[in-house]
Amino acid sequence: MDSSPAAIAREWVSARSWDRFVGTPESAVLDVKSGVYPLDDTAGAGELIKDVAAFANSRGGLLLVGFGTRVDNGREIIDKVKPVPARLVDVDRYRKLVRDRVRPLIRDLTVDFYPVDDERGVLVIDIPVQPETAKPFVVPGPDGRKMPMAAGVPIRDGDTTHWLTHDDLQRLLSTGWNAEGGPRANIIEALNRAVAAAVPSPPPLNHPEVGEGAGRQRQHFTNAYAAGGGQTKLGHPTQPVTAVGPGLIQPLAGRNGAPGPVLTVMPSRSGAVVPGDIWEDLCEAGNTADAGTSISNVGLPAAPATSPLLIRADAKTVELKGGRWGPGRLAQVTAGGPLLWRPHTSRDFETHHNNFATGEPAELHLRAVLDVSWQNWKYGPQSLPLAVRHRHRGLLTESGLAAHMSRFAHRHTAEVVAPAWNLASGSNSNHSAISSHVRAQITAPDGPPVVTANSVLQTGNWRSPSSVLATVDLGLDLRLLTGTHDQLKPEPTHAKRSRLPIVNLVDALVAMWEVLVSLPEALEPDLTRLPYAAPPFVVFHIHAGPDARDAGEDDGVARQLNLADVLDLAALGDGPHDVSRTQTGLRIVGPFEPDHVARRRLVADSLSDLALSLGFLTADVNGLLSD
Known about the structure:
Blueprint: H1 5-14, E1 30-33, H2 42-57, E2 61-65, E3 67-72, E4 75-81, E5 84-85, H3 91-101, E6 110-115, E7 120-127, E8 139-140, E9 151-152, E10 154-157, E11 160-163, H4 166-175, H5 185-197, H6 218-227, H7 230-234, E12 242-244, E13 247-251, E14 262-265, E15 271-274, H8 276-285, H9 291-298, E16 299-301, E17 309-310, E18 317-322, E19 328-332, E20 339-343, E21 346-348, E22 364-373, H10 386-398, H11 401-409, E23 422-423, E24 435-443, E25 449-459, E26 467-476, E27 500-501, H12 502-516, E28 537-544, H13 563-566, E29 567-568, E30 583-589, H14 596-614
Parallel strand pairs: 1-2, 15-17, 27-29
Antiparallel strand pairs: 2-7, 3-4, 5-7, 6-7, 8-9, 10-11, 12-13, 13-14, 14-15, 16-18, 18-19, 19-20, 21-30, 22-26, 22-28, 23-24, 24-25, 25-26, 28-30
Keywords: ATP-binding, Nucleotide-binding
Protein name: ATP-binding protein
Domain Schlafen AlbA-2: 26-134
C-alpha cells in the first residue's frame, strides 16, 4: 500500500475528509490556495499554469483551492477549510487553460470540484508523476506573454515554486535533461542547486499609488501601509481607493495566489491593514453576494483614532464599527473555522415584533420571542418529526422555567413542585408542519389555571427558510396567587389582588430568556457554528390583561387592568399613584452571549429605564437586582 504523502492526500480527497488536511504543512507534493485563480486576469492565469507545471516538473502533487494557512516557524501550515463559491469555478476552463499553455501535454491531469454545501466546495487539481522523458514542462514566461521565445520552467522546491533563470535553463539544456537512461544523479543535484539559487526578476508593474483617490484620508492609508511593512510585506495596490460600506478601502496584491491584504479607513479613524483571509471572512459575514453590501451590514475594523491597526493573520477576534447590523465583531467560534460575525449585546425598546399571545387571556401576561436566522441554513424535513417535538418538550423540562412557575403559585411556602410539560392538543394548539407547541399548567384544586406556560418553536417558511422563531408565554391569574400551596383555591372576587413584585418580574423574564435561547437546539444541535443572516434578538412583552371576574358579576364585563394593578412597583421608589399604561416591553439584540448575571443586569437596566418613562424618577436599578 502506497503510504507516501501524496497518496495519503489523495485518499483524503477521495473520502472528502477535508478536515484531515488541517494541521498539515504545505510540501513538495501539496499546495493550497484560499481563493480561486482569477483566470480573467493574465497574472492569475499565469499563476495557475506555473503552479501546475512546477508539480509536473517535480514529483507530481495536489493543488487544493479552498483552504487557509498560517505561518509557523517559516512554514505554511493548513489551518482551516475555507470552501470557495461554486459560481467562481469552471473546471472545463481550468483544464483547457492547462492543456493550451503547458508543453508538452501533462498526462492524466484531473481537475475536479467537490461541493461541501449548495453553494461552496473545494477545487482539486491532481498532477500525477510524469515520465522523466517528458520533462521539462515549459509554460509562457513570468511576464505572461504567449510568444514562443518567452518561455519558462517552473520547479517545485519544498513548499514553494521557483522559476529557472536563463542561465539555469541554458545549463540544464546543454547538460541534457533526457540523457540516455534518464537524468543522472549529478544532473538532479545541479538542478536542485540551480533552483535554490534562482531569484526571478518580476516585470515592472503599473499600479495605483497607496491612498490614491482617498483625498484628505490619504495620509491614513500611507501610515497604515508603512506600519504594515510596505510593498515588501504587503504588495502593491491593485486599484485606487474606493468607498465601501461605512468607509474607504484599497485592495493590495496577494502572493502565490493567496488573497491580498486590504487597507481600510473609517471616518475620524486611522487606517487598518486587514489580511486577505480575514477580509474574505468579513465579506462573507454580511450575508449577501455583493461584498459592498455585506460590508455595509457588518462594518469595517475599528481602528484607533491616532495609530494604525495591524490585524494579525491568525487573529481570533476583530472588532467592527459602522455596520447597519449594529455593534459587533468577527470571532472564530470553532477551532480552525472562519471568523463569523457576532453582535455585541445591546438593548432597546423596539417591541413591535410578534406581539400575538399564545394561550388564554390572563391578568398578567409575559411573552418572550426569539428571532434568529442563519446563512444558507434550511431545516431539511418537510415537517417537524415527533422527535423534534419531544426534544422541544425536553428542553423546557430541563430548564428552570417550570420551577419558576411553581414559585409563582406557591411563593408563600418553601415547596417547589414543577409542573409537567406536554405537547399541546386540541383546537387551542399551534402545531403545524413547521411548528411545535408545548404547554405546562398549575391549576387550583377545583380546576382553574393559576399559571399557564405555552411555548412554540417554528422553522422558517418559504419566505424566510433560514429563520427560527421561538416563543415562551406565561399567563398568571393574580387572584389565585394569594394563598399557600395547601390553600391554593380561587379567592372571592372582592379579595385583594396579589401583585407580582417587579423584582420577581426580572427573574421571570431572565428565566424565559434562558430557556428561549436553548430551543433552537431541537432543530440544530450545533447552532454556535452557524453564520448569522441577520442580528438575532429576543423581544419581551409585558401585558396587563382583563380583570378575571366571575361570569355574571358586573354584567360579566371585565375591566382592563393597568400595569400598576398587576405589578408591585414599590421597588422603584416614589412615583405616580396612577399608572395608566397597560403594556410595555424591551428588546435584547445578541441574546446568546451574556451569562446569567449579565442577563439579569440587562433586564433590570431596561426596566429601570422604562420606570423613568412612567414617572418613577428615583428608580434605582440595584433595587431590582436584590435577592
